[in-house]
Request: fold
Amino acid sequence: MTAAPAAATRRPGLGARLANLVLPVFTGLLLLFLFSPIGVMIAFSFNDPAGRQNITWQGFTVRNYFDLWGRSQITTPMINSLLIATVSTVVATTFGTMIGLALTRFAFRGRWIMNMLIFIPITAPEIILGASLLTLWVSLGVERGFLTILAAHIMFNISFVVVTVRARLAGMNQSLEEAGMDLYADGRTTFWKITFPIIFPGILSAALLAFALSIDDYVITLFSAGHTLTFPLWVFGVSRLGIPPEVNVLGTLIFLTAFAFIGVQLWGQRRQGRAAPITLVGR
Amino acid sequence: MRSLSRGITPLLLLLPGTAWLIVFFVVPMAFMLLISLQQGTFDTGYQLTWNFGIYPEVIGQYWELYWRSAIFALAATGLTLAIGYPVAYTIAFRGGRLKNALLLIVVLPFFVSFVIRTLNWRMILSDNGIVFGFLKDLGIVAPDFHFLATPASVIFGLTYNFLPFMILPLYVAIEKIDRRLIEAATDLYASRLQAFWRVTFVLSLPGVVAGSLLTFIPAVGDFITAEVIGAGNPQVFMIGNIIQRKFLDSLDYPAAAALGFVLVAVVMVLVTVYTRLVGSDQLAG
Reply:
């Protein structure tokens, strides 16, 4: 390349250097803004409010953390949420992975219908998915509760799993499967010994996404819940006037769990990043 | 996969998931359509009378809420784009080794429940809360000023909640841009601003389109923000608040179902117009 030498040697002036700072500073400020409700949530989880109104700072206490599990009103919604998230993740991940395999590995007619069926639930406003399910329950006289919430969560999770798993399958080198077949492995053996281990990270991230979506869902759940409470429904119900400290305690615990997950992931990436140059040298 | 490509294997793979989506997504849409055409009251029961007149009726009664929802969602989409673009650009082009870490930091707050985040914003922005209580003590803001329950507060809440839906697709599109193209533009005497608008921005359009749709569609149907940050003020209600109340409080199922279908139609029309304007091939990118 014949790069213009003038451009390469020109020292940026003070104005240009200041201009270069604008974007990083803006990004930093935005990150602060994104975290501000989280910071307040963590701070107020240690607040010692006089009554139920947890609006102004009264004093520091860790009692909220120790009182938490004594409150039976929290336990039932939390167990419901965890059960629904676990079961819907397992079912949706299984069904979604199967669809992902069919869409990437087989040619069949009416693919576009399948694509629409996957795509529309992801893009439709949640209130439409929730409200239309309500009309189903009402029309058929199904009593709303744990099972109707579960059916709804499996429904919206399938699409997200298909999209995530399909991305992994599409990026996969198919000649590995062909090599397996050439070496007389049957379809089943090829799948379990070659395809499945390769796409497993994709299945795992799809499952994590499904679990996170299920445990956080408010809108669709509301329409299928009846009198059953999940964690987000419970939070909304007890926070009509002010946020009780236990809501912020649970929010803080969820945040710390997510933080730990992401920290571990970043640490893994950094290790991989450091390992890469070494393998290059070794070669 | 020659030996697998024939036979019933693909059918068996598709069957359970597809059946689930049909029973719990397609069939409910049909039931919602049928219910919208029924008449009666909750106590005496609803009968199917093919009452198509419900549609002009609910549109006549609630067109203002559709209009408001579209304006709020458009404003929030514009704001997330204006705020999110510089951030996605900075992470993609200046992030260096920290790219992935920065991206994860952007999404980290959103792992905390949507409901809890929105409730905390309501507390922060309340009349005598952390922000406005402080400003009032300093005398910067009039003592009777309030922000919650205003249109601006609802747009603010929507903007906050949908920022990651804008930043992530923008980042993916900007990160893919071959930076030699931008160098080529500046070598050919384009100013930095010209190079940005004529090269970088144009090449990032698929991200702009995807981010706008991922923000606008959920935002236009949202009702939690107007309920919590809008403090339940009917003056800032969006159409989702009416649909939710009619379904769950007043149990007026036919009108609620009709309002839901009109919302679907509004979204489809706006999305079609938008993708026509920017070119639908941008979606594929």
About this structure: The longest helix of chain A spans residues 245-282. Residues 33 and 273 of chain A are 30 Å apart (CA to CA). The domain at 70-262 of chain A is CATH 1.10.3720.10 (MetI-like fold).
